Every structure is written in C-alpha cells, then in structure tokens.
Amino acid sequence: MSETNWYVVHTYSGYENKVKANIQKTIENRHLEDQILEVRVPLEEVIEIKNGTKKQVQKKMFPGYVLLNMVMNDDTWYVVRNTRGVTGFVGPGSKPVPLTPEEMIPLGLDAEKTADVIVDLEVGDAVVVTGGAWADTTGVIQNINKQKQVVTINVELFGRETPVEISFAEVKKM
Q1: Which of 5, 107, 108, 160 is the least buried, fewest Cβ under 10 Å from its Cβ?
Q2: Residue 70 and residue 102: Cα distance in Å, rounded?
Q3: What is the domain extent for residue 142?
Q4: For the chain, how many helices (H) and strands (E)?
C-alpha cells in the first residue's frame, strides 16, 4: 500500500460538513476505506458572549477547508475533486501538496503522538469523573480508546445504565 498523507481541500464556504458527509458516503459506496482513511473539519472551542451570557461553542478553525488523510492516486484524486462542493485541492495547479509534519502538529493530526499514549487505566477499573458535565460521577470502565483518548463508562441516566465517553484527563482511579 502506498503512503498516506494529509491533504487540504477547498470547499464552498459553509459546505464543509456537507462535503465531509459526501466524501464519506463515496468512500463507503466505492469501497475506498483503505485509501481515504479520514475526513476532518477541524473545530476549536471558543467562548462566545451574546446578550451578556457566556457560551462555549465549536467554531471551524479553517472555514472553507476540509482535511483528508489519504493515499494520493488517480482514483482518490478523481473521487475527491469531483465531490459536490469541492473547488479543488490546495496546491499549485491541479497538483495537491500534502501537509508537512510541522503543519500538522497545531492541528492535532500528529498520528505518532496520539498512538504513544500511556494510561494506567484498565477495563473494569472503578473511576470517578473529575471534570466536565459528568463531574463527581463514578463508574466502571467498559472500553478504552487510546486513539481518541477516551474511556467509556456506564452512568445511570433516568434509571438506566448509559455508556458515556469521558476524556482521559477527566477520570481518576478510585
């Protein structure tokens, strides 16, 4: 298999999520899961103040752009380039230029960095949530996802056990 890189696609402004959904649907329909690995619209948390109230919202880091982790070949180029809402790849002419490792770090796309996470948690451990919406909630770890850096615990919600994903940073062993 060829090398995968992150590429940037320019879209019509406001169509980023639609383009992402269209590309993901095409990947599924054409069975390109092994060539186009990930499609992202980078978001950042910002605090918005409207009418005197603070509200934490997610804003697009780069309006009008979508990031793709893919193998560049004629098929993948054609599929992405001909997706409705895509105006083209970022790069000179029709030649896409992959992001450099230095450009990827601030975007949180450094794959090697996320793969080396070392956690002292295991499935079955009892934990207490230290922050976020589920602060002071206790639960037992059902699943650990090192890639996303989250654990899944069951919490009681409306009298039923409900699985909830919590960030590594917000849980502590009991």
Answers
A1: 160
A2: 18
A3: 126-173
A4: 4, 11
